[in-house]
Amino acid sequence: MRLSAPVTVTLCLLALAACERGKPRHVPADPMAVAPAMAAVPPTAGLSAGLSRRPELAGFSIDSIGAAPDPLNRQPAMTPADRPIVLQGFGFDPVAKAPGKGVDVVVDGKAYGADYGAARADVAGYFKSPGLAAVGFTATLPAGALAVGPHLALVRVVAADGKGYFEGLKIPFQVK
Asked: If we measure between CA atoms, which residue out of 79, 148, 97, 92 comes closest to residue 120?
């Protein structure tokens, strides 16, 4: 019994497919998905209270304010009022060219302590300073903490010696 070439190829493919065991597939997280709502933790008071302002501009960037990426360069920066407002970026002591003792995010004149020390290899690479590899920060304000309307945010970096702080530029944003 002689089978035609197409039938033979089809049978070979079916045989190979039957040998394949199903592999568990892990679906990667959707990078565009909104993070699930977490219990809002009130922000801490700022670390810069009682310290004197240094004249130099902080080494800093605010990468995002809530839903607004790159708010310094992409104006108007807008974020919704019904979600927590997460401010993320980096900051360092520009005089010591080293991580600061901490970072505060100041919104409308009120300082909020930020989680500080997140890995930022991009910053270390850009400034050609391996010591700046852990200068990332995140501060989260609960939904409803800011009124709808215009606001100003800035970064304060507590100096590496802990004896003062450096401020960044004021960045306007809107809560809508």
From this structure: 92
Whether residue 6 is predicted with pLDDT greater than 60 in this model: the reply is yes
At 72-90, the pLDDT tens digits run 899 889 999 999 999 999 9
Query: Residue 38 — very low, low, confident or very high, per pLDDT cuts 50/70/90?
Result: very low
Contact predicate 71/62, CB 8 Å: yes
Let me know how long the chain is: 176
Residue identified by tokens 């290899």 is: 121
**What residues does 65 pair with on adjacent strands?**
68, 87
Output 8 or 25, whichever has higher pLDDT: 8
The whole-angstrom separation of Cα 85 and Cα 88 is 10
Answer for the pair 117, 131: CB distance below 8 angstroms, yes or no. no
